[in-house]
Description:
GO terms for molecular function: transferase activity. By secondary structure, this protein is α+β, with helices and mostly antiparallel strands.
Amino acid sequence: MDFPHLHLVSFDICPFVQRSLITLNYKAAPYELTRIDLADPPDWFRERSPLGKVPILIVNGDTVLFESAVINEYIDAVTPPERLPPEPLERARARAWIEYLSEQTFAQYRWMTAADEDAFERAAHEAARGLERLERQMADDHALAGAEFSLVDATLAPLLMRYALLTHEDSPWDPESFPRLAARWQWLEALDAVRDSVPADFSQRLATYLDGQTGTAPRQLAAALRRG
Ligand SMILES: N[C@@H](CCC(=O)N[C@@H](CS)C(=O)NCC(=O)O)C(=O)O
């Protein structure tokens, strides 16, 4: 069977797209990339993306896959060896933690874009609880911190990359409080697949996006990003 033509449709600062880029990079899969502006998406994208969201993966020009977790499993399946456990229960557990990380990604977004002080504090609290649970789980769970890269890592890296960049005194992230997550991030950030999953000016692009939000917290975070 010929290797399928993979065409990923992307928005530069989207953490869900980044998961698929990490997977494509890690698996050294050839792909075509089209960046769109989510604030003004082209008509063809509206027609092809069932939920109006990125990422979508267009396979062989006609079949559209959506939902980053599903896209990643497909990429993984066509580029063996697979990076999910083969045993059904372990595989299901890894998928469950990928879902958990999606919730944490939304919590992070609520924190980054909070419209007022109350919302910012609530979101910081919620995000910190999510990270605490993850840190505890990582103590003895190889689904989360195995010896090798997995699709869970492809999902974890975008979340931790943003926390590492968004320094703020009220950040839910603190490497000293989350040593296992911090160690995993140190390992992940050194991977080419992770480094190459965002544009070189990613911080600036994220800062520009945050500057466009209402509320003072996003602008403070944008300023922190610009300071570097
Ligand atoms: N569950 C989806 C979430 C994707 C998602 O929320 N993408 C955002 C950008 S980061 C999006 O396309 N938002 C546009 C919208 O909601 O209209 C996935 O994992 O792919």
